[in-house]
Every structure is written in structure tokens, then in C-alpha cells.
Specification:
A: alpha+beta; 8-stranded antiparallel β-sheet; 7-stranded antiparallel β-sheet; 18 helices; B: alpha+beta; 4-stranded antiparallel β-sheet; 7 helices; 39% helix
Chain lengths: 1032, 261
């Protein structure tokens, strides 16, 4: 056999085949392992990449939200003048325009939409006009020009429906949707066109993600977690609807919700607290307000409910059929309950810029008016006294009791009777009630007296601190339920200590009257016995009746040391007269120095006292039996004239506390025409009283005459003095109409003419008409404030009417008289009922020139035990008239009228709301005070309502009615805080190398967030936020 | 002669003893090397699998918790991370629907089945018609979520096997860490100790599981992060002497910081 044949040996060939198979087998196994490994690696890599992209998108989205917030802060900076207080920067809006966020890319039909990422630089820049913004401080627009609705790589885009998902705006066209903002390796960059570098991983322009956003205004929406009440309780809570203390009393039917929907909503939301109307009212005014409606109420047994996210609210609306109202509703809102009003730098010392006050780093707090309840304590505990001292600077005076609310203000200093905010800051505490009034009321309007011509003006009248104390006392008496006037001892260090009284629904001195009666004798030449009388006329000028819990007995008292004397002129020869003293004495020597009137009585019209134990009565026949003091000259001498002079007198009106008589009103200080000023030292309330009658040619004239009266312009105050009037016997008129003769027709010239002792601001030489201070509009008969500005009196709005009942002097029409609430305040604007200690002026919350409008900002209704934010308010600059209408409707025009017609109707509320939104659209309110100072426009020396003021007739009839607008909005609106929702979609990914346009972004991860945000406009601080992740 | 050639040829075609010995020696060495390689590969694979097992278990659990946290409802008036008794626990409301509820709101609870070493997630859905008079959600309570007690076993599902311990604590705005939640909390820190399935079974069979878990206890007073605390506990010499090395090495500790929304 050929050895070479061995190559063909089957065994050999077999072995070689096995080796090949083995190799192939091993290769197959290895290949399988490699493939498996590679597959696993790829899957793992893909999973890891997806996971990392997801995290990347999340982090990117959160970072993008921070960017948007930073943009908003830059807008605040650019729109503000800054000041640094304790290292904190305060951003005061440059103009009203920059009070609220700029509008970028808005849709007219969707006013909630404030801003969106928009590639149009022109539109972006025009959103920040000069001088409202400092262009150098504005953020740069970084949005690209690619719309989010444009298909990206792979065909994905953000549809209109997705952008419409928050249901706060309606995007109906692709062009209305936001544009993408691109994030490159080197940060955010604006691309207006495609650049190949965006695809180049080694380039700084390489894009790694993009986001787009919209910003919605939530501030102008109704917080459905706080608003509304059960319609079935409406009648029971009508007194709460009269004034809107909270969003809880908003009428949600104005938003288009049905009664059934509201009933179901409130019943569900307040399951624990809405079983009865009283339960709900209690909840609103205590539990809810303590946290500013931040917290839902509940315990282990029961709980209220809340919408916890916007998606939650949307779902509820879908279930309950009110999705159309979702653009008026929000579940999130927070408003800083802090003051921010500024009068400008010139007033900074006494009336500081509230936004810049820091007390040990803490902002100035609004003073909660419910602290006034402390002063109602019957027997204040040590803790209560401590709080009263801290909150009011008051301490009870010996003898303090339920019927004698007698305090002393003792927190002043030798240099500052009421301390300024600067001093309060130095003392490291929040201001007390009176200090807050001092810081709030425009100081250069306070302390106006009658001028040089009225030297008898009390020294306290020309001192603003005394006026502040009196205003404070009047506020206290508005709030407390009793009818006992608050008494406050106060010294301004420069004058003697004074005692000031609050104003209650009680009679006050309106006029003192001297009359005489000559009883002719039959002798020749004729002689007469002359009787002189002194009478007091009282008047309670308020509406309504005094509370049962108040004084029941009053009296008039004259000081013992007051003297009287009768001078007589006797004809001793032809044209020869002898002027001599006929008789004299002190009041102390008379049988009575006081006239116990007995019951407080009505005195709803000026009435000379005709009851009591007077030393003598003067009987004109029932019912004109007047009680007063009688002085008789029984010399029976022929006389041409007599004169009664009363010297050194202060009249006091007192009420009986049950154990003693307590003064609550005084009348004194008249200087008659002889230039004498008499000072009386025993009484520290007012100056002395000195006046006389002059009886000329007694006999045989009519047997009785009112010869002289001295009267106040307003019975509650003697500011501007007491004016003396020589009443000619020809114009003798009934005593009880002497203040406003001729049937109380103040519109004519038949008013009481004052020919003596005119205040310096009366320009007429022939006489003054003090009753005209009711309107304070008549040229020559106006009382300007100390700053020279003549502000309208309480009757200003009635001046144009021809209705003669529209004044406080009318005997039957009382709707135009002042009001004493005698209950807790239910709106800060109810401070407008409090007497300003100026004739016929209550605190002014109705005129554009108001010096008191800051009250709306400086005070709040309720003490919050937690936090400085309130969640039951609405932005006053809301673009939605429906929202304001829900607050305005049903507000009572006059709290003393229970008629349903005395409330603002839905129709009128909508008209008013529309006017406000029309106004604020172009000129937003910077502060709640602007509702008074800007919305009404007065011009000229004789103010008149402008066309921008409410055209609602009912509101134009009186100050009380006009203030129903601030009463409805003062405690339910705010302007300080921006409440926003940022709807942001962020996508991670990149541009593939083959990309050819900015839209060709390859998406690898996506996140969507709704960030609810509250930003303090004045500090830029985020005061509240909620991040809501959106799953789609 | 021809047969002698054939014989010689046959002899020449065979292997000498030396060749055989040499070949066997080479084969032995190769098998030894391959065996070593396979052993190392096997061990490496086993370690890798364990690590993957740990990582998967922990990641899936932490991812789920993080997702829930991101949709969590954290309000001043609604307690969170408190169970029905008031103790700190991974219990909170989320804005997502849950089992048995028609509202986009549910109470989520994470818990450990210590017997089976399983991390479980309970979900109690809230209804719009939820009767807040009898089953209060917990508004205005500060320290307990009453509805938590109503999460039934049918509403609890296993989410991660091999979980031996779970603790949460909080990083607050002032930089402090506390084991109780407050409104100052900014970040939730979740610590979880896991074992792979294979070793878990071994540990259970050997009875060492209880010893191990006892070392993964809760700190009486929170003084340090759980990752370092448990590490210290597991590496304590006295403890190491009482358990096998594989038993110790079968435990991994993971910790994640989750920013509270």
C-alpha cells in the first residue's frame, strides 16, 4: 500500500473532522456568549440610559424652574427702586405698572396667562417699558424661535391640549403656545436659527436639553379651599355678607356656580364645620383665621377637606360639572399679611414706608383689630393687663370698672407722647395700637385748630397726639359692645394732662343758650324784673339706638368755681347811663351745680334739656319746659340793658356709673368779644368757658328772648371752638332747631349764621356757617387740614342732591348720620365709622385725598397665631370682574338698615367690578389704600366725583354707602404678593448629527411640573410654594 | 520484509510514552488553568449577580419611593411620615390614585415583611365621597395619619425581595438631620439593606438571618447616617466572629437622598 494513501485513511479524516466540528462548536458557543453578553450589556445600557435620562430630565426640569423663578426676580429688580434695610433689599415698585408681573406673549381671551417662553425678542422687550423698568437690569430673553407644537425628531410635540391641561388659559392656535428654551453644554442660549454646532458633542453649543413654560396668575382667582358658604345658610349669615371679612363670605354664584354645586362643595370641603351656619361662622372667624386659612381643620374623629393639587381640583370640577369655572378657581394662594404702603420719603419720619420697617429683622406686622377685644375684659387678668399694656400702652386707672372704662396711656416718653416707629424699632418691639395710628394717619393733617381767631380752642386740639388718642378711643368704642365711653388719660408733656373720651351712641352738648325774661313793672319810667336763664341743648347725632349695656342716667354739671354776674346799664339822666354790677355769685352757691337729667333719653334731635332737677325751669308751656339755671335781678330798677356774664366755667356731661358720675363730654373755652381768656384749672379736659348775654332795651319788648347761644359745629367735638351767635329777637326760633334753622335745609343760605368768634378759616366777614363743615365744600366755609388740603366732610356726597333729608340735622331722615357699631369689626374698612375728632368727619376711606387710607394696609381684622400669610384673599388687581363681584355683591350699604334693597345687588356689583378691572388693567393698584386714593378722583378746590368713580347711584348717596366698596374689599384683597403657577415641560436629549433644524431635537426624557409659587413683590422672597408633578 | 516495514510504520505512527506523558501533563496543566479560570469566572459571575441583585432590589425600591415622594402631598396641615400610632414611618399622601379610591389622592405606606424579607408598598385610595367624619384624612393633625391603619393586606403588594432593613430620616433646611419629619425637612434620606436571593436562602437556612437583621437596627438617637451606622454594626469584630464571612458579604446597604417637593 502506498504510504501516501495514509492521507486518505478514514481514521485520520475522521479525527480532522472532529477537530473542525470542535472548533466550530467552540466558536458557536463563544459567539453565543458574546452575543448574549452584548445583548445584556445593551439592554443594561439602555435601561441605565433611560434611567439616567429620566433623572436628567427631572433635574433639568427642577433647574429650569429655578431659572424661571430667577427670571421673575430679575423682573422685580428691574421694576423697582431699591433700599437696603438691615442688609435686606426692599424692592419698591417704580410705577404702578411694575407692581405686577410683566405680560409676555399673552392671549387676550386668557387673562390668567402672564408670561411664556417666547422667542420673539421684540415682544419680550416691549413687555418691559421705560420708566416702569430699568432696561439694564432686565433678564435676557433666551427662548428660541422653535415652537413647542412643532414636531421634533421622531414626530413628538406638545399639543394644544397638553398646554391647555391646567385649564387656566385656552391655547387655540399653535402660534400661541410657548417656544423652547435650549440648554447647551455652556448653559442656556438663545437660537433664532439652526446651527450645526448644536449637534456637535465637542462644541459648547451642543444642546443637552430644552424646556418651555407658561406662567399663570393665580392671585386673581378664587381660592376654592377658602371661599364660599353654603347657600342654604345665606339668611343666617347675612350679617357676615354685609361686610366681607374673608373670602369665606364670597358669593360663588357670581362665578357661574350653581347653588347646588356650591352647597355640595362647601359641605364636602367643610364636612367638619359646616353643619350649621353658626358652626361655620365660628370656624371662619376663629379656627380658620388663626392660620390665615392655611390649615384644614380636623382631629382624630372628623376632618374638613381640601383640594391638595390643581389636578385634584380639576378632577373634582370634572366630576361635578364646573370645568368652565376652572379659570377662576385655584387651590393655592398665599398672601403676605404685612403692610407695604409708602407715602414717599418726605413723610418717612412720622409716616414710614411700611415695607421697609424691620424690627429686629422682622417685618412690621399689621395690627389685628380683634385685639380690641382685650379692652372689653370685665376684670382683666394679669396676663390680659400685660397684653393690654403691650398692645395698647394702656393701664387701668383706679376705679376702673365695667361701667367706667378708664385707662391711662403710659407708653409715651418726654419727647414722644406717642412713640414713632423709629423709636419702636430701637426698643425692639412691634408698635402698639396708638403708635400704629400715629405711623398710619397722615400726620400733617392732624392737630388742626381754629386758628388765631379762636384762642379758646383747647390746647389739646392743636396737638396731633391728642387727636390720635381721641381717634383711638373712638375706634375702641366702635368695636366694644357696651355704650360706656372709653376714657383715656393722656399727657403730651408740653401741656397739662388731658382726659379724652371715646364716642358712643349718647347725647352730647350741642349748644348752650342764654335767655332772659323781663317782667315789666307798672312804674314810670318803666322798670322790670329780669330773669336770666342758662340752658343746655343736647344731641345724639348718631343713627340707631344706644346699646342696653351703657349709661342710663346722665347729668349736666358746671364747676363750683364758675361765677355768674349781672351787669346792668341804668339810665341816670338824659343820655346818662350807669354800668354797674347788679348781682354776682358762684355756681357753687346756687342750689344746684348739676342738673340730673335722668334717663339718657333719645336726643336724636337737638333738644334743650327739659327734665331733671334743675334749679329752675322755664315754662313755655308743655312740652317746652326747659330746665336750667336761673339768675334774677330783682333790683326793679329802670334799666336799658342787662348783661349776664358766666365766667370760668366748664360744662360737663356725665353719666352715672352706678356709684359715681363720670364725665364723657365737655363744653367750655369760649372767648367772647372782649378778648378775655379765662383759664380754669380744675378741669383738664378743655379750656375755660366764658360767655354772656347782652340784654338790650328790655322793656317793653316781648317778655322772653334767646339772646345768645354758643354752639359746636359738631356736638362730639369742640375742635375749631364753640361759636357764639347773637340771635336777634326777630329771628327767634325754636331752640331745638337752632343749630340748623329753617327746617334743616343746609343747601340754602338760611343756616345758622355765626357772627362772633369765627375760626380763622372762615373767610366771610359777615358771618360763618359752621354747619357747612358737614360737607366742607362751601367756599369760605371750609376747614382745611393742617397740610392746607381741604378734604370732604362726611356729607360731601350729599351736596349734589336736592334731598334735604340728606344731612345729619334733619329731624327724621337719619340715614346720613354717623354710626356707632358697638360690635367687632368685620372689615378693616369699618374703621371708616370712627370719629376723626373733627367736625363731621369720620376716618376717611372714601375720598381720593384721604389721609387715612393707609389704615386699610396697617390694620388687619384677626390675630394670626401661625404665619404671616393669608390664604383667603384675592389680588385686588385681578383681571376677573366675576371674582370681585363675588366679593362686592350683597355688601350692605348701611349697617343700620336691614332691608335687602340696602345691599349691593349682583348687577351693581358686576358693574363696579368691571369698572375696577378696567381701571387696574392699565393702572394696577400698588396697595389696598389705592382703592381709596386712586379709584376716586377728586380735583379742584371743590371736590367732585370724576367719571372714574362708581356710577352706582346707591353708592353715591353717602360716605357710609360709598365705603361699602372698601368694606367689601379691604379684608378680602391684597396686592403685595405674586401668586403664580409655572407650567414647565423639560426634555432631556440632544440633536442627532443629521439634524437640520432647531425642531429636530431627539427627546430622551421628559418631565412636567406645575410649580405653584407665592413671591413677595417687595423682597423677592418665595413665601410659599408647591411642586406638583404632572403625569401624562 | 514488507511486514516488518508495516510493523515499523505502525510503531512510527504511534505516540511514545514520553509523548503521551508530556501530552497528559500539558492537558493536566491546561485543565488546571481552565478550571481556575472557570472557578474565577464562576465566582466573578456569582459576585456580579449578587451585586446586580442588590443593585436591582435597592434601585427598584428606591426608585419607587422616589417616584411616590415626587408626587407626595406635604402640607403644613397634613402630617407625613407618621403612622397611625405617631411613629416615624414611610407613610404619606400622594397625588396619585390608589387602590379603592376614585380621587387622585392616596395614602402610601412602605413596610418590611421581616419574615420574608420583602419590601412592600401599601396604597389606600381616597374617594371623593370619603366620609371625613368617620375616617379623617388627618388634616390638622400633627403627628399621626389615622387612615394609615386602614390599609388592608389586600392593598399591600411586594415590591422588592431581599430587603432586610428600611429606615428613613430627614435633612432639614438648617442642615440638621432628624428622624422625625417637620415642615423644615428638605430632603428625605432612605436607607435600605438588601441581600441577594441565593445568599438570603443560605442565611435563612443557616439561621444567621436573625443575627444579621438584629445588627440592622434603628438608632435610638439619630447620630449618624444609617449607611455608616449599619456598616459599623456589620463590621463589628464581635459580630463578624459570630457569622460567616459570606453571610456578612451578602448584605449591601444603599442610601438615597430624595428632595422633597
Amino acid at each position: 500500500m502506498n504510504p501516501n494513501q495514509s492521507q486518505g485513511n478514514p481514521n485520520t479524516e475522521s479525527r480532522r473532522g472532529i477537530a473542525l466540528l470542535s472548533i466550530l462548536f467552540y466558536l458557536a458557543i463563544v459567539s453565543l456568549l458574546v452575543v448574549t453578553f452584548m445583548t445584556m450589556v445593551r439592554l443594561e445600557r439602555s435601561a441605565s440610559r433611560n434611567y439616567s435620562q429620566s433623572l436628567k430630565a427631572e433635574q433639568f426640569a427642577l433647574g429650569s424652574l429655578d431659572y424661571v423663578i430667577q427670571q421673575l426676580r430679575q423682573q422685580i429688580t428691574a421694576g423697582s427702586d431699591t433700599q437696603t434695610v438691615n442688609s435686606e433689599i426692599i424692592y419698591t415698585p417704580k410705577t404702578n405698572i411694575s407692581v405686577r408681573p410683566a405680560k409676555i406673549g399673552t392671549i387676550p381671551a386668557s387673562p390668567n396667562l402672564l408670561q411664556k417662553s417666547l422667542g420673539d425678542n421684540t415682544a419680550f422687550n416691549t413687555a418691559f417699558p421705560t420708566p416702569d423698568y430699568d432696561a439694564s437690569l432686565l433678564p435676557t430673553n433666551l427662548a428660541s424661535t422653535v415652537s413647542t407644537t412643532t414636531d421634533s425628531w421622531g414626530g413628538r410635540s406638545i399639543s394644544l391640549d397638553r398646554w391647555n391641561r391646567p385649564q387656566l388659559a385656552t391655547f387655540s392656535q399653535n402660534s400661541e403656545t410657548p417656544d423652547w428654551v435650549l440648554l447647551t453644554r455652556s448653559g442656556l442660549q438663545q437660537f433664532t436659527s439652526f446651527a450645526s454646532t448644536v449637534t456637535n458633542r465637542s462644541s459648547n453649543n451642543f444642546v443637552i436639553g430644552r424646556f418651555a413654560y407658561t406662567i399663570y396668575d393665580l392671585g386673581g382667582l378664587i381660592n376654592i379651599n377658602s371661599a364660599g358658604f353654603r347657600p342654604s345658610h345665606e339668611l343666617d349669615v347675612s350679617d357676615r355678607l354685609d361686610t366681607k371679612a374673608s373670602l369665606a363670605w364670597a358669593d360663588l354664584t357670581e362665578l357661574g356656580l350653581s347653588g347646588g354645586q356650591i352647597e355640595g362643595l362647601v359641605t364636602w370641603r367643610n364636612a367638619r364645620n359646616s353643619t350649621s351656619s353658626s358652626q361655620y361662622t365660628s370656624y371662619v372667624e376663629t379656627t380658620a383665621t388663626e392660620s390665615g386659612f392655611a390649615r384644614a381643620d380636623g382631629d382624630l374623629n372628623s376632618s374638613d377637606n381640601r383640594f391638595v393639587t390643581r389636578q385634584d381640583l380639576i378632577q373634582y370640577a370634572q366630576v361635578n360639572g364646573f370645568t368652565n369655572q376652572l379659570d377662576l378657581l385655584t387651590h393655592f394662594q398665599a398672601h403676605l399679611n404685612l403692610p407695604s404702603h409708602s407715602l414717599g420719603t418726605s413723610a418717612a419720619t412720622e409716616n414710614p414706608d411700611f415695607s421697609a420697617v424691620r424690627i429686629n429683622g422682622t417685618p412690621l406686622q399689621r395690627f389685628p383689630l380683634d385685639r380690641l377685644k382685650l379692652l372689653e375684659s370685665i376684670n382683666p387678668s394679669i396676663t390680659q393687663l400685660s397684653n393690654i399694656a403691650a398692645y395698647f400702652g394702656l393701664a387701668p386707672v383706679s376705679g376702673f370698672s365695667v361701667t367706667k372704662r378708664h385707662w391711662v396711656y403710659n407708653q409715651g416718653s418726654s419727647t414722644e407722647p406717642i412713640k414713632s416707629i423709629d423709636t419702636v424699632i430701637a426698643e425692639n418691639r412691634q408698635p402698639n395700637f396708638f403708635e400704629m395710628l400715629y405711623a398710619t394717619l397722615e400726620n400733617d393733617t392732624l392737630g388742626q385748630d381754629g386758628g388765631n381767631n379762636i384762642a379758646y380752642t383747647s390746647a389739646s386740639d392743636s396737638n396731633k397726639f391728642h387727636q390720635i388718642i381721641r381717634i383711638g378711643a373712638a375706634i375702641i368704642d366702635q368695636y366694644d359692645a357696651d355704650g360706656y365711653p372709653t376714657i383715656i388719660n393722656f399727657t403730651d408733656q408740653s401741656t397739662a394732662a388731658f382726659q379724652h373720651y371715646g364716642i358712643e351712641n349718647l347725647p352730647y352738648f350741642s349748644e348752650l343758650i342764654l335767655k332772659f325774661r323781663a317782667i315789666p313793672n307798672s312804674s314810670t319810667p318803666p322798670t322790670a324784673t329780669v330773669e336770666h336763664y342758662l340752658f343746655c341743648e343736647l344731641w345724639n347725632p348718631h343713627q340707631g339706638t344706644a346699646p342696653a349695656n351703657g349709661p342710663s342716667q346722665i347729668r349736666v354739671l358746671i364747676n363750683d368755681s364758675a361765677t355768674w354776674r349781672i351787669n346792668a346799664v341804668e339810665e341816670i339822666g338824659s343820655n346818662q347811663f350807669n354800668f354797674g354790677l347788679v348781682d354776682t355769685g358762684t355756681f357753687g352757691a346756687l342750689p344746684y351745680t348739676s342738673i340730673d337729667i335722668g334717663s339718657v333719653g333719645n336726643y336724636s334731635n337737638p333738644t334743650v334739656i327739659n327734665t331733671g332737677n334743675a334749679s329752675s325751669s322755664y315754662d313755655l308751656g308743655a312740652p317746652l319746659i326747659f330746665n336750667g339755671w336761673k339768675f334774677t335781678d330783682a333790683s326793679d330798677l329802670p334799666q336799658l340793658a342787662q348783661q349776664l356774664v358766666i365766667d370760668d366755667a366748664v360744662f360737663q356731661l356725665q353719666y352715672f356709673t352706678g356709684s359715681e358720675w363720670q364725665t364723657y363730654n365737655t363744653f367750655g373755652g369760649l372767648l367772647f368779644d372782649d378778648g378775655t381768656v379765662l383759664r380754669e384749672s380744675g378741669i383738664q379736659n378743655h379750656g375755660p368757658f366764658y360767655f354772656r348775654d347782652d340784654v338790650e332795651e328790655i322793656a317793653p319788648r316781648s317778655p322772653e328772648r334767646t339772646v345768645i347761644s354758643t354752639l359746636k359745629s359738631d356736638p362730639r367735638t369742640q375742635r375749631f371752638g364753640a361759636s357764639a351767635s347773637n340771635m336777634t329777637w326777630q329771628s327767634f326760633s325754636p331752640l331745638n332747631t337752632s343749630l340748623a334753622p329753617n327746617g334743616q335745609n343746609l343747601g340754602s343760605n338760611n343756616e345758622q349764621v355765626i357772627t362772633e368768634s369765627q375760626a380763622s378759616f372762615y373767610s366771610g366777614s359777615s358771618g360763618a356757617y359752621p354747619a357747612r363743615l358737614w360737607t366742607n365744600t362751601y367756599t369760605g366755609h371750609q376747614a382745611p387740614d393742617r397740610d392746607g388740603v381741604t378734604r370732604p366732610g362726611d356729607g360731601f356726597l350729599t351736596q349734589s342732591t336736592t334731598n334735604n333729608t340728606s344731612n345729619p340735622f334733619h329731624s327724621t331722615g337719619t340715614d346720613y348720620r354717623p354710626i356707632i357699631l358697638n360690635r367687632e369689626f368685620r372689615s378693616v374698612a369699618e374703621l371708616g365709622y370712627a370719629f376723626r375728632d373733627q367736625p363731621w368727619k369720620t376716618l376717611d376711606l372714601f375720598s381720593a385725598d384721604s389721609a387715612d387710607a393707609r389704615l386699610l394696609d396697617a390694620f388687619s381684622l384677626y390675630e394670626q397665631t401661625s404665619g404671616n400669610t393669608r390664604h383667603d384673599l384675592v389680588d385686588l388687581n385681578t383681571p376677573h370682574p366675576e371674582v370681585l363681584a363675588a366679593l362686592i355683591t350683597k355688601t350692605r350699604l348701611n349697617p343700620n338698615s336691614s332691608a335687602t334693597t340696602n345691599t349691593i345687588s349682583s348687577s351693581d356689583a358686576n358693574t363696579l367690578a368691571q369698572q375696577i378691572t378696567n381701571y387696574t388693567e392699565n393702572q394696577p393698584f400698588e396697595n389696598i389704600a389705592d382703592l381709596v386714593n386712586e379709584f376716586d378722583d377728586y380735583s379742584g378746590s371743590s371736590p367732585s366725583l370724576s367719571s372714574s368713580s362708581p356710577s352706582i347711584t346707591l353708592l353715591s348717596i353717602s360716605k357710609i354707602a360709598r365705603e361699602s366698596l372698601p368694606r367689601s374689599l379691604a379684608s378680602t384683597t391684597s396686592t403685595r404678593t405674586w401668586n403664580l403657577m409655572i407650567d414647565l415641560i423639560a426634555q432631556s436629549g440632544s440633536y442627532p448629527p443629521t439634524a437640520s433644524g432647531l425642531a429636530d431635537f431627539k427627546i430622551e426624557g421628559e418631565r412636567r411640573y406645575w410649580l405653584h409659587l407665592s413671591i413677595d413683590r417687595y423682597t423677592g422672597e418665595v413665601v410659599n410654594r408647591q411642586l406638583e408633578i404632572v403625569y401624562e | 520484509m514488507s511486514s516488518g516495514h508495516r510493523h515499523l510504520k505502525q510503531i512510527q505512527n504511534g505516540f511514545s510514552l514520553i509523548e503521551l506523558l508530556a501530552a497528559m501533563a500539558v492537558l493536566a496543566i491546561m485543565f488546571a488553568i481552565l478550571g481556575q479560570i472557570f472557578s474565577l469566572a464562576s465566582k466573578s459571575m456569582s459576585d456580579g449577580k449578587r451585586r446586580v441583585d442588590h443593585f436591582s432590589t435597592a434601585r427598584s425600591a428606591l426608585d419607587l419611593i422616589a417616584t411616590d415622594i415626587q408626587s407626595g402631598i406635604f402640607r403644613d396641615d397634613l402630617p407625613a411620615f407618621r403612622d397611625a400610632s405617631g411613629a416615624t414611618a414611610p407613610v404619606f399622601y400622594t397625588s396619585r390614585s390608589g387602590i379603592g379610591g376614585d380621587r387622585e389622592l392616596s395614602l402610601i405606606r412602605y413596610q418590611l415583611d421581616t419574615t420574608e424579607s420583602i419590601l412592600q408598598r401599601g396604597s389606600l385610595g381616597v374617594n371623593w365621597a370619603h366620609d371625613t367624619n368617620t375616617l379623617p384624612i388627618g388634616f390638622n393633625l400633627s403627628s399621626q395619619l389615622p387612615l394609615e391603619a386602614n390599609i388592608s393586606t389586600s392593598q399591600v403588594f411586594d415590591v422588592a425581595f431581599g430587603a432586610l432593613a428600611l429606615e428613613i430620616y430627614f435633612l432639614n433646611s438648617d442642615g440638621s438631620i432628624t428622624d422625625t419629619y417637620s415642615s423644615n425637612a428638605r430632603t428625605l434620606i432612605v436607607s435600605i439593606a438588601v441581600a441577594d436571593e441565593k445568599n438570603l436562602n443560605i442565611l435563612k437556612q443557616s439561621g444567621q438571618i436573625n443575627t444579621l437583621v438584629s445588627r440592622l437596627n434603628k438608632q435610638t438617637i439619630l447620630t449618624e447616617r444609617y449607611r455608616s451606622y449599619w456598616d459599623t454594626q456589620l463590621n463589628d469584630p464581635s459580630f463578624l466572629a459570630s457569622v460567616s464571612v459570606p453571610a456578612r458579604q451578602s448584605i449591601s446597604i444603599f442610601e438615597r437622598s430624595i428632595k422633597l417637593p
